[in-house]
Design brief:
The strands form two sheets. A five-stranded mixed β-sheet has the order 2-1-3-10-4, sandwiched between helices. Strands 7-6-8-5-9 form a five-stranded mixed β-sheet. The chain contains nine helices and ten strands. The protein folds into two domains: about 130 residues, 3-Layer(aba) Sandwich (D-Maltodextrin-Binding Protein, domain 2); about 110 residues, Periplasmic binding protein-like II (D-Maltodextrin-Binding Protein, domain 2), CATH 3.40.190.
């Protein structure tokens, strides 16, 4: 009788266990595992399937019918466009604010700020594509406000997402402009602040407000709503703060 009861409970719980699919901007790739782990403490039966990519490409996929239920963008522009087109069913909310940083595999004098990028020994600079990645827009703004953009443009090597830009920055170029949150990945533990990386002066670019929306595919799905509400909660904010994000 006890075995029968346990078997019944197993099938009962399985019937209500679900999977949700969320589209997540590449800069959040370093924090998303910790976020889903924290979420599953309260919702252990919900499996969170994560699709990573640049905000622009994910938006294009959603617009063409990709069955994502929730979208965490690297800025507000893309979720606002989806909401305007009635593809997103919730008004975009800010879940975090991102910031820019320099990174180089070699020791650099970051006290020079943007002027550092003009050094003759820096021949290639990794930046995110501003057409697909909001951190690329921020990088361009910072260089333009410093008056170095035009002279540096021939050095640019574009990454389609901030994670690809990071890869280029430490393997194929001399320096890169990436999301500060990247440095909270264990893979970058060898890179030291002030030696290999430093924050970009935040006054040089518009704050990177990162937006979240529920998509049409997630309509009337309680588990999607649960994750959405979690991302706006103090628990999620604590995780995001630990990964270098500013909290709205």
């Amino acid at each position: 009788m006890q075995k029968l009861l346990l078997l019944f409970l197993f099938f009962f719980s399985s019937a209500f266990a679900g999977e949700i699919t969320i589209a997540v901007a590449a800069n959040v790739s370093y924090a998303i595992k910790s976020l889903t782990k924290e979420f599953n403490k309260d919702y252990p039966d919900t499996k969170v399937r994560v699709i990573l990519g640049s905000s622009g490409k994910l938006t294009a996929q959603v617009s063409h019918g990709a069955p994502y239920q929730l979208f965490m963008s690297a800025d507000m522009k893309y979720p606002e466009a989806l909401y305007k087109d009635s593809i997103a069913i919730t008004k975009p909310r800010i879940y975090a604010r991102g910031s820019l940083a320099y990174i180089s595999a070699k020791k650099r004098d970051f006290s020079l700020g943007m002027k550092l990028l003009q050094n003759d020994n820096i021949r290639k600079i990794a930046v995110a594509n501003p057409h697909t990645a909001p951190y690329g827009i921020a990088a361009a703004q910072a260089m333009k406000h410093s008056g170095v953009y035009q002279s540096l443009k021939p050095k640019f090597v574009y990454g389609e997402s901030i994670s690809q830009t990071l890869s280029y920055a430490i393997s194929a170029t001399d320096i890169g402009l990436i999301a500060k949150s990247s440095f909270y990945s264990p893979k970058l533990a060898q890179y030291k602040k002030g030696v290999h990386w430093a924050e970009v002066d935040p006054s040089l670019y518009t704050p990177i407000n990162q937006g979240i929306v529920i998509l049409k595919e997630g309509h009337n799905n309680q588990e999607v709503t649960d994750f959405y509400q979690f991302m706006l909660s103090p628990k999620a904010h604590k995780v995001l703060s630990d990964f270098g994000y500013l909290i709205p």
